[in-house]
Amino acid sequence: MSDTNAPSTDADDLADLTDEEWRERLSEEEYRVLRESGTEARFSGEYVDHLPEDGEYRCAACDEVLFDAGTKYESGCGWPAFYAAEEDSVTTTLDTSHGMRRTEVRCASCDSHLGHVFDDGPEPTGKRFCINSVAMEYEE
Ligand SMILES: [Zn+2]
């Protein structure tokens, strides 16, 4: 029998996780950022000054690849910044919380909060994906 239709992806299961289950899977800080749209303190994250030649950054909640290390750059904003996300890896929505109009970035696979995207990034995209370190895991 073919197993091409087998439900294999973690992401499908993740969509059904309860808050309680997320709390068990994630650290307190990860839960606060990823599931409660929190923001880590400026310049506090482990990947702020992390500029590897290659590798990739994966979602800390579901392990999907989000950003290629080649798109990471030094923005000086205090959080890891990328000028592009991997294709179809993230979704964006308007966020009007805290009296600001920002574009929120979420993981397309598990709908966890990652950070925000701004229009002041470098070429070739002009985008600055400002992402919490705690929302990602770097892999060489
Ligand atoms: Zn995810």
Automatic annotation (TrEMBL):
GO terms for molecular function: metal ion binding; peptide-methionine (R)-S-oxide reductase activity. Residues 10-19 have a biased composition (Acidic residues). The keyword Lyase does not apply. It catalyses: L-methionyl-[protein] + [thioredoxin]-disulfide + H2O = L-methionyl-(R)-S-oxide-[protein] + [thioredoxin]-dithiol. One of its GO terms (biological process) is protein repair. It is an enzyme of class 1 (oxidoreductase). One of its GO terms (cellular component) is cytoplasm. Its cofactor is Zn(2+). The keyword Lyase does not apply. Residues 19-140 form the MsrB domain. Its EC number is 1.8.4.12. Keywords: Metal-binding, Oxidoreductase, Zinc. Residues 1-21 are annotated as: Disordered. Belongs to the MsrB Met sulfoxide reductase family. This is peptide-methionine (R)-S-oxide reductase.
